[in-house]
Design goal:
The chain starts with a helix and ends in a 21-residue tail after the last helix. The protein is α+β, with helices and mostly antiparallel strands. The protein contains 26 helices and 27 strands. Helices cover 40% and strands 25% of the residues. It binds ligand C2E and calcium ion (2 copies).
Amino acid sequence: MDEQRNAVTTIDQGRMKAVRERVLSGFHDVDTGSDELVGVLRRVLAGESFSVSDLRRIGQPILYVSDGFQALTGFRREEAVGRDLGFLMRADTDQDEVRAVREAVREGRAATALVRCYRRDGSLFWNEQRHYPVKDTRGRVAHLVVVQRDVTELVHARSAHEVARQLASSLGGEGAFFSYGAILDAAGSTTIGWAHEGVAAVLGHTPAELHGRELIELIAPEDRETARARLLALRDEGGSRRDRYRMLTAAGRVRWVEDFASVSWSAKEAGLVAIHGVVRDVSAERLKRLEVGEVDALTGLPTDRVLDDRLDQAIRQARRYGGVAGLVVLELDHFDFVHQTMDPRRGERLLREAARRLQRALRRSDTLALLRDGCFAVVLPDLGDAEAAVPVVEKLLAWVAQPFEDGTLRVELSASAGVALAPTDARRTDVLRERAESALQRARMAGGSRFAFADVALDQAAEQRLAFERDLRRAFTDDQLVLHYQPRVRLADASARGVEALVRWRHPERGLLLPDEFLPGLYRARMGETLFEWVLEHAVEQAAAWREHGDARRVSVNVGPELLERNDFGEVVRAALERWQLHPGLLELELHEQTGMQALERGFDQLLAVRRHGVTVALDDFGIAATNFAQLRALPVDTLKIDRSFVARVGEGADPSDVELLRAMVGIGHGLGLTVVAEGIETAAQRASVAAMAVDEGQGFLFSHAVPADMVGAVVAAPAGALRASAISVRPRPVFVP
Ligand code: C2E
Ligand code: CA
Ligand code: CA
């Protein structure tokens, strides 16, 4: 982003490079002491950013950094010397690349790496590092000289240029456009880092005028909110987006543009995301039809929003005149696969071609809309009867099945469709859509390349589901959810170690519902994140209230699988703790065993970060999913909760092999230094049995059911005063990083 600095380092590069490489390779047969080496380098590489490390010493410490290095990174010489050069690098640096460079250096070959680095002030830059190993007289690699260059702008310009090129060709190349880079931060600012000259033609600004300004301020006030939401989504979800909105020119006039923006890099730790975008002036196009959001920019088809309107009209009309209206949801089979493997331009062409064919198979009064990538909806407003839909749908599928010829490529696709009819299948747009979608799912499940009608049984299920989801949303807004707490007890002295928060639903008609009765539906409705946030907030608040009253208890919160997907998980947890001023050691997260294993692939960093913060992690229902020892070892957990099905088999009259199995599981947990908890202890015999295996803690009906928060104190104090709340430990176990 600092143009001056880039300008300096790019001067007469070819010549510099040749000189440098000759001099550097000259060291191969000189026995150079560190001081001499630095002395020579200071002359040869005057003005450049470089560092010299000693590879013979443990930790490969930096011996010297140049003035240029200090200027580039902001680190002073005394701050850098003695450290490994890796201290500049982001944690997510491509490890394969690092390994390849290390390997080359070990073998005495020069190598170049492109890595993202931090400056002292926390800002990031793309660093082109040229590594030059320097050998001593005995041919051993003794020193490493690394010449650094800030290529941030180059990197951005290159990718932005690539996008611009693709975009221009995919859209026919008409209209002025410019590319830009912007930094989005956690607080919502949208600072423009650079913009290319094309901006003059579109907005009448010079690139320099835009440098440092808020992107959002260049957008016309009426579109700002949508644009902001879209940028936030880009910041939080990554990927890329194409949107249309109005921008203001330097002269204050409004221009319609299409902005194709994608994330170029993100620094989660610093809360920064850089995007690059290509803004194309589309004012000249037929904007009346292309109202933002109503028409898909790529296919020219109406979108979701318009669809509901037309569908509503069609349903009304059918009811009024006693006819039948049809909704067809048609999806290209395996489109995800095609889309991922194909050059994006080709993918877009294919989608456009599919849209064109479908349109041709329809009548003028029918509406074809785009639901999502690779998925279309068709409203058939005046079918004489249900049967009349069949030939239309068959025609649609047949058209799609024709091979697509695209230059050298021939693609054969198929599609599946679901058909729902009004008023027989449903009388409301949302239900009708749900029904067409589930019919589509059945067609796909049956192997694809076919269509299915929604039937009565399915209709009922869909309606029930919709009703359930409506109720569920109301449960959150009307405070129908409640947390009960079940104590966890240390078996050695019966002291209470904490409580597990378990959610219940006070359903207005069905009474108190247990999780098993509503969690599956809740997850199906994709409300898992909402639940977690609700539970976390209330559990942390409760823990803070208890601590306030002098009885600090650790609260365990169950984490569902969907949380592996969200990348602000750690942030959500930290924020809740901060809001209620709760010590992280008073919070534990319980991960179902299956979720834990998935965390090895995704969400691992989130888990690690939460745990570093001091929150403990327990692996729930251990034993069910058959986690192997290696996986268990790799998981960042503190506690193992053995599933109650194993505990149920021990106690009075137990089969010795069941006892041995449980003992082995306890041994595994202890072998890894974990706290072992037995769940579902119901009888004194079970308690005695697990206590004899040196299980650390227990939970179960023998001690207490899950009870409302205000009863926890009484329950915990109850059995002969044996349970003491004061014995809880708030010291998190040391972090184990595999
Ligand atoms: P879990 O995490 O294994 O929770 C323990 C369950 O075992 C609780 O059932 C608890 O009431 C029950 N239990 C405790 N002691 C005994 C015992 O001695 N015998 C028997 N038979 N059962 C005992 P609950 O409350 O019905 O919860 C069921 C499951 O629902 C939980 O299993 C957990 O997976 C899930 N769940 C509960 N609350 C939440 C929540 O807030 N978020 C998420 N994501 N899941 C939750
Ligand atoms: Ca649990
Ligand atoms: Ca459990």
